[in-house]
# Entry
Amino acid sequence: MRQASAADSAHYLQSEANNLASFLYYLKNNYPESFRRITEYVRDVVPQLREFYLEPERGYISLKWIDSSPNDYVLSADQLSDGSIRFIALATLLLQPEETMPFVIIVDEPELGLHPYAIDQLNEMIKDASRHAQIIVATQSTAIIDGFSADDVYVIEHDDSIQGTHARKLTEKEYHNWLEEYTLSELWNKNIIGGRPV
# Structure
């Protein structure tokens, strides 16, 4: 994500976000409203970022940015924390326009390296993206789980009887009485809903 990417590789966000800078540049020029929303979410979580600085150089674009100080320095992606660059990639993935969004998005442990406030913003972005695509998130984060209802959650567990894994969908109805007193993550920690090591 920190590397320069070819400007002509920008019509969709690659699975490892290898073309993050060029895709942001593409959105800036073709979908300015989506680019504005991405920038706003990123500023909220990375307040030192004033704006992205995306300028092609010899057919490649690097992820550069201008900080919020009065000096107008152009900084590189190497000057962003791992959590910050991860959040930029997630915001770009989840807030891209419907026209470029894939039908299914699968994200494994998106909470890694994120500040708790960023996880709250991530939950909002997941809900927003789910209006246009099927979003599947594998997580071990209590903060992510508590951002959703039981109806949104599947618990995946190893099942010795089938020598594989078993997926079980939770429902608000099934856990209604429990959820009057406990959060979903508290039920997870108490092993009421499963999903814990045996």
The chain has a mean pLDDT of 93. The longest helix spans residues 32-45.
